[in-house]
Design brief:
Blueprint (H helix, E strand, L loop, with lengths): L9 H11 L3 E2 L1 E6 L5 E6 L2 E6 L2 E8 L8 H9 L1 E5 L6 H6 L10 H4 L4 E2 L8 E2 L4 E11 L5 E13 L4 E2 L4 E2 L1 H4 L3 E2 L6 E2 L12 H8 L1
Antiparallel strand pairs: 1-13, 2-3, 2-6, 4-5, 5-10, 6-9, 7-8, 9-10, 11-12, 13-14
Bound molecules: flavin mononucleotide.
The site of flavin mononucleotide has 17 residues, from strand 3, strand 5 and helix 2.
Length: about 210
């Protein structure tokens, strides 16, 4: 089956792409409004884009009335945010924060989610997150009236001591048990069932082919 996206409604393109491009990591983004009200919400149009500079990308869709979601408005207004990664124990707390609360509501307070002050940016980070990345807005791309993509530069990287070897910087990703977004509303993946393949070298390939 093929789909000519120029003939498909946006909602149908969303269905096909978001259910196929899985599993997706989840950025549990904390931000502050200009008035200083805290906000938290999950975003799975998210990934690492570069290490030099250290960039993460977020895809922020607009609301049906065209307004920015609170996270997007806050990032554009203040230029700062924190990406917290989601452990299995935080699944319900993370899910709570996608509630359609009005802009003036502090979802961290409403969800009794514990935070601690960040080092470089004003929005706090989530205490229970295995990893939190303090970010400064690097680029904003208003790709349409319906979506904005932001690139954030990571200035401070926090990782729970239990999951990193501080000398070799080896991260025990499996032990973090990070949640990922799957197809359809409400589905997540956990505890990856992993396989390993070493990266091939062209020289070895040529040797074996002789
Ligand atoms: C796991 C998960 C991932 C989500 N990913 C996105 C996303 O990538 N982009 C987006 O616009 N909305 C996404 N949403 C929906 C937003 O979290 C939701 O609209 C939320 O209410 C926005 O909150 P805010 O206005 O406080 O930013 C996601 C929801 C969940 C539960």
């Amino acid at each position: 089956m093929q789909f000519d996206f120029s003939r498909l409604a946006a909602a149908d393109r969303y269905k096909l792409m978001s259910a196929s491009i899985t599993p997706r990591p989840i950025a549990w983004v904390t931000s502050l409004s200009k008035a200083g009200i805290r906000n938290a919400a999950p975003y799975s149009f998210f990934n690492m884009m570069s290490a030099e500079p250290p960039l993460v990308a977020l895809g922020l869709m607009r609301r049906p009335d065209g307004a920015y979601k609170d996270t997007c408005a806050n990032i554009l207004e203040t230029g700062e945010f924190v990406v917290n990664l989601v452990a299995e124990a935080d699944l319900d707390a993370m899910n709570f924060t996608c509630i359609d609360a009005p802009p003036g509501i502090d979802e961290l307070h409403a969800g009794a989610i514990e935070t601690v002050a960040s080092i470089d940016v004003a929005p706090p980070r989530i205490v229970s997150a295995p990893v939190s990345m303090e970010c400064r807005l690097k680029h904003r791309i208003d790709v349409s009236d319906a979506s904005t993509v932001v690139l954030g530069e990571v200035t401070v990287f926090h990782i729970d001591d239990r999951f990193v070897d501080g000398e070799r910087l080896h991260v025990d990703a499996a032990a973090m048990g990070l949640m990922a977004r799957m197809h359809g509303a409400g589905w997540y993946a956990r505890r990856p069932d992993m396989v390993r393949r070493d990266r091939p070298a062209w020289a070895d390939f040529c040797e074996q082919a002789r």
